[in-house]
């Protein structure tokens, strides 16, 4: 067993790839794990810090739409509290841009990214409720192009393990549980 005081796992992916659902499922395998969701750090709909696209849409698909300084401060605070641990603590952070924020990305012991294709993501997004709600054309004009741009931005991070989001949630869950257990036991080394 490792002498580390804590481990931090990052779970990212395409919009509507199952990140939140899988994070909830992982709590059954790791009941003492603490979880953090990047969505909790979005600015409000009327906040002028949310960038505007040329079409007039607010761009919720970028780091500028979130208070990332606050998120990193919360992660750092959590890490500081773990220094007196007798057994290692586990933090699972999920969010679609967690690897794009380089300071946050440097803190992960293991990184997972779930990929789904355009049509799967678009079909799933119809069933989600967003605040503010998606305006017509937002997925095609902003969400998917920004996803491709954000994905390109993390290609230099070779330690990200990409998962096939077309697999069942149970298969993805089992793959994640095995991977996280390997990290916790020291069988999987951090490459970041």
From TrEMBL:
This protein's UniProt keywords: Kinase, Transferase
SUPFAM superfamilies: P-loop containing nucleoside triphosphate hydrolases
Gene Ontology MF, one: kinase activity
Family matches, as Gene3D superfamilies: P-loop containing nucleotide triphosphate hydrolases
Protein name (Swiss-Prot/TrEMBL): Nicotinamide riboside kinase 1
Source species of the chain: Aplysia californica
Gene: LOC101849306
